[in-house]
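Much of our argument rests on the idea that a fold can be written as discrete symbols. The record that follows shows the chain in one-letter code together with its fold in token form.
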Amino acid sequence: MAALVSMNDTIAAIATPVGQGAVGIVRLSGAGAIAVADAVFSSKRGKPLSAARTFSLCYGWIVRDKEVFERAGRTPQAMPELIVDEVVVSLMRSPHSYTREDVVEINSHGGPRVLSVILELLLAKGARLAIPGEFTRRAFLNGRLDLAQAEAVLDIIQAKSELALKTSLTQLSGELSGRIKGLRRRMLDVLADIEARLDFSDEELGGVPDDALSVLRTTLQALRSLLEGSFCGRIVREGLKVVIYGRPNVGKSSLLNALLRTDRAIVTAIAGTTRDTIEECVSIRGLAVCFVDTAGILEAHDEIERLALERTRKAIDACDLLLFVFDGSAPLGREDEALLSQVNPLKKMIGVINKSDLPARVDASRLRGLFGVRPLVHVSALEREGIKQLEDEIFGAVFHDPGLLSADVLVSNVRHIEILKNSAASLERSIDSLQKGLSPEFGAADLRRAVDGLGELTGEVFREDVLDVIFSKFCIGK
């Protein structure tokens, strides 16, 4: 953590977003937080912050020269040029604070210049500017939060939907951490038993008992259960990316407008109106869904079309779900089939038969043969008919198991997912070697890797470089 001078420093930062607002907050944390704030704050009652109780609010002014201001009578009228702002200061003493250090928050008016001047005064009195995520990092290092909970703080700040917020709050409460720590303790108990047998092998303690293997199998199943919901968890956290695809003039842009319930894309009867990808997001049942309207180009004939085709292909590769749109008022053409053949057969896809307000001419049975078990939905984007059914299918593509929504824990963080995958793989290898009666050293080594992996998820085992990466994603004031 090269950027940090010392954990003993008193740190300060603006905790509210950049720009104008009714209220702004400048936050301090550290052993000297109260003294530094006291050096620039003059209470209306004349009492220093050091005399205030924890969880108390103090009204007064932030001043450029406290000694001169108070000698002049401690009133705004006496020396108005010394006053930076009228403020309310909140005080939280260690260990009953977010960082488990003394924390002071100065609540001022929300103008950017006001906040900057207050911060400059605090830095001049001995505080150091916090680096991104340093307040939450201290909360983790001081035992206020574990690492999974600390990451949930960022997820709450960045939540794009109600479901994402709900999942993040559950993780902040410690539900995921408690589950992981419990599984890790089970594996540690078995590991301790195996290592004891290795240390005292001359006493013929025997092989690994069946009940220990049973514990490991149950633990492996629990890890796999967490991973089963990880796709849904990631989508809830990051939002569902849905690409609208199909040949020109099937109504892709009209469908985008219908799903957004606003005229976002230009719609004309001229084929190829959309020459670039258009991206907009909405909420469907609390899930953030980002729709991407693409150019329906099979072959590029100029540089613009080449770039449009390249962007379309990139969008399709990166999306979570594809809406393949057909014109229900026209026969299925070779261009439809050619575009469909270019889609990865493993890609999640919903067929959308558009223009249901016109006489049907598409061969539905042939289309069903091409789509197999994938859903086919009839809509009229122009008349906004069938959109609710399509939204249900989109939601169901993620939450195909309704029980996932009521799950106690939904793993959503990519780092957590990778750790769980690696830990499960290590545990599976350990079980396999122990079952085959191989030397216990092999099983113990893989089991240790699984145990350490879960420890990295919660922060019971951590490296400074990993912490640097995690907390660099936070804003400075958090």
